[in-house]
Amino acid sequence: MATYTPGLKVVGQVRHKVRRVLPIVGNLLVKEGDRVQAEQVVAETFMPGDVTPINLSNILSVSPVEVKDSLLKNEGDQVEPGDILARTKGIFGLFKNEYRTKVGGTLESVSDVTGQLILRGKPIPVQVRAYLTGTVIEVVPNEGVVVEADVSLVQGIFGVGGEAYGPIAVACRNPSDRLEAAQITPDLEGQIVIGGGRMTGDAIRQAVKVGVAALVSGGIDDQDLKDILGYDLGVAVTGSERIGLTLIVTEGFGDIAMADRTYRLLASRSGSPAAVSGATQIRAGVLRPEIAIPIQQSGAPSVRDEAAIDSTLKIGANVRIIRDPHFGVIGKVSALPHELHTLESGSKARVLEVAADGAQKIVVPRANVELIET
Question: Considering all CA atoms of the chain, what is the largest pairwise distance in Å, rounded to the nearest integer?
Fold first, then answer.
């Protein structure tokens, strides 16, 4: 049997691990074994502030070697906007030039070769949140932690925007219903809103206006996405966009209904707090956008470890077709014929048969499907 890399995860119960690390060394605020909440800060540091170069030699009309004698501040001093940073001696005490800084920061260095001064802005605080409500199972000294939790996990095919938190709220009654602006009501502020089919551009704009934390739906129109972003995204790693909320598309571009299995799982967790991430990387090092909903384990059955999920393509495996003309169709593998099959193009390939909803059976090349973990 062939072994496939699993595709999108749509899992009711799974043990999920996330690595939460700082971009540079910093301080850890939790220790191994601690229980943490999704929005709890687990590590923090300070990035060096922005640099502002100021050419005092030109501004004061003095030679570079005279700049240091003109300074009213020493290296390492704090400077506030409006402070007089330097003043020339003038001629016989008259005709003095001075410079008032327009920005604040620390006087970092002065060059007597170029006459340029460097102001370093205030350090920029960087905080990392736990993301999952769970347990710290590993500490990376001075960098971060690994958090583990039992969750319901749904991965999307594409997303934009960073991490967001809030309760699940279902806006569409059916997985095929289009998510329109009229369904985005003020009471959805701060919530993760579940749609059905395509989310419209007007719905996204209304969600930003209302203050929705995230929108999750089956599809999106490419032009709507371009209008919202203000540019054509192209092929890139997403997740850093600042559009006022996080967007996750579970199926693809166009008028595509959310998979019934995905919709049912999300709807069953309505009202539950969740964490979402729109970060997506499609090429090497695949990164999927996701919705992670913690499971309270009091009396609940044990969950599967994500690393132990079977990735073997076999009869009964859940798959999703990822090529036209059946893109987005989800079903179970009903047959795995060994002989080569002649395709419409005339080429030959190994195929499989997918039993989709409504008992429809579709024959497609094996390379045209991905496993769905459920």
Answer: 100
pLDDT tens-place values along the chain, 374 residues long: 444 445 678 889 999 999 999 999 999 999 999 999 999 999 999 999 999 999 999 999 899 999 999 999 999 999 999 999 999 886 655 667 899 999 889 999 999 899 999 999 988 999 999 999 999 999 999 999 999 999 999 999 889 999 999 999 999 999 999 999 999 999 999 999 999 999 999 999 999 999 999 999 999 998 999 999 998 876 668 888 999 999 999 988 888 899 888 999 999 999 999 999 999 986 656 788 999 999 975 434 445 545 444 556 788 888 878 777 777 677 888 888 888 888 777 788 888 898 887 667 888 888 888 777 65
Report which DSSP code applies to 304.
E
Strands, sheet with 124-129, edge to edge from the N-terminal-most edge strand: 27-28, 41-47, 124-129
Cα angle at 299 between 293 and 304, to 5 degrees?
55
CA distance 256 to 267: 18
pTM score? 0.76
CATH 3.50.30.10 fits 12-45+133-294, yes or no: yes
| 51-120 is a CATH 2.40.50 domain | yes
Which CATH topology does 313-371 take?
Answer: SH3 type barrels. (2.30.30)
